[in-house]
């Protein structure tokens, strides 16, 4: 029997010369589909287990350290973080850059929160450079992982979306990726993975993503930059937040997305 013929089951023939003969049956398409579904189910169960453990761990930490996590105590850590950045600006910048790239490449749902924190922690234009290049670098790494290491898994999971994206990409070119970055109808991590299986060049993926992500990053960075220090929040509460400026920033972003959607 050829090696390429997959084996799923076996049955025994009557013994001959004291040795039982086994008949190995070839794997059918039904078996292949069943195996894929079982693999997906196992992956979903592991994700659920990991998510549950994370929630339990966060809840336990919040319970044990609830006093230390008060806003008044966090003010002390803010002062330490500010001092750290003042004394080691390059080291802090590169460390946060590496963390941001890793979070984006691994498709962890922390990018938005990290963007706001960077806007709060760094000078605005330094934060723009950091987040803009780090988010695109992480997206490109995820793109490469999909293209060169996880091609079969991504195709199996997002096959239907891949067909539609390939068709539209062939018709509209790089502008289609640009609109998907601005109008996130497809989740960020899914888009990175699926684009890895399209014919688009890495260089094109990089610069289009760089431009497409920038407007959203600017808004979230502005939110972080507009947030007052923890000391001010501790003293003034939510009244210390510049809600009007933040609302204007999101309104402008919404208008931009509407215009791009009409053009596409």
What would your notes on this structure say?
By secondary structure, this protein is mainly α. The chain has eleven helices and two strands, in the order ββααααααααααα.
Write the topology of this structure.
Blueprint lengths: L6 E10 L2 E8 L2 H36 L6 H17 L1 H17 L5 H11 L2 H25 L2 H22 L1 H9 L5 H8 L6 H25 L3 H7 L6 H21 L1
Antiparallel strand pairs: 1-2
Helix pairs in contact: 2-3, 2-10, 3-5, 4-5, 4-9, 5-8, 5-9, 6-8, 7-9, 9-11
Q: Overall mean pLDDT score?
A: 76
Helix content: over 70%
Q: What's the oligomerization state? A: single chain
Q: Nearest-angstrom radius of gyration?
A: 25 Å
Give the neighbour order of strands across the main sheet.
1-2
Main beta-sheet annotation: 2 strands, antiparallel
**How many structural domains in the coordinates?**
1
* β-strand amount: 5-15%
List keywords for this structure.
75% helix; disordered N terminus; mainly alpha; 264 residues; 11 helices; single chain; two-stranded antiparallel sheet
In brief, what are we looking at here?
The chain has a two-stranded antiparallel sheet with strand order 1-2. Helix 4 (111-121) packs antiparallel against helix 5 (124-148). It is built from 11 helices and 2 strands, in the order E-E-H-H-H-H-H-H-H-H-H-H-H.
């Amino acid at each position: 029997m050829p090696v390429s013929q997959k084996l799923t089951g076996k049955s025994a023939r009557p013994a001959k010369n004291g040795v039982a003969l086994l008949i190995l049956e070839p794997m059918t398409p039904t078996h292949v589909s069943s195996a894929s579904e079982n693999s997906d189910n196992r992956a979903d169960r592991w994700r659920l287990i990991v998510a549950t453990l994370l929630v339990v761990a966060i809840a336990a930490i919040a319970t044990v350290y609830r006093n230390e996590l008060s806003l008044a105590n966090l003010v002390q850590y803010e002062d330490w973080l500010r001092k750290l950045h003042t004394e080691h600006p390059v080291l802090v910048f590169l460390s946060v850059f590496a963390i941001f790239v890793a979070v984006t490449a691994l498709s962890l749902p922390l990018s938005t929160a990290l963007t706001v924190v960077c806007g709060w922690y760094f000078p605005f234009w330094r934060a723009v450079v950091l987040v803009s290049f780090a988010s695109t670098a992480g997206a490109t790494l995820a793109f490469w992982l999909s293209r060169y290491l996880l091609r079969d898994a991504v195709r199996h999971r997002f096959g239907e979306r891949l067909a539609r994206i390939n068709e539209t990409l062939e018709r509209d070119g790089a502008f289609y990726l640009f609109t998907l970055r601005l109008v996130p109808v497809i989740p960020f991590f899914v888009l990175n993975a699926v684009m890895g299986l399209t014919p688009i060049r890495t260089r094109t993926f990089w610069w289009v993503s760089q431009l497409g992500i920038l407007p959203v990053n600017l808004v979230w960075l502005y939110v972080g930059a507009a947030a007052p220090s923890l000391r001010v929040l501790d003293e003034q509460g939510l009244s210390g937040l510049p809600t009007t400026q933040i609302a204007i920033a999101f309104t402008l972003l919404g208008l931009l997305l509407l215009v791009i959607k009409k053009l596409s």
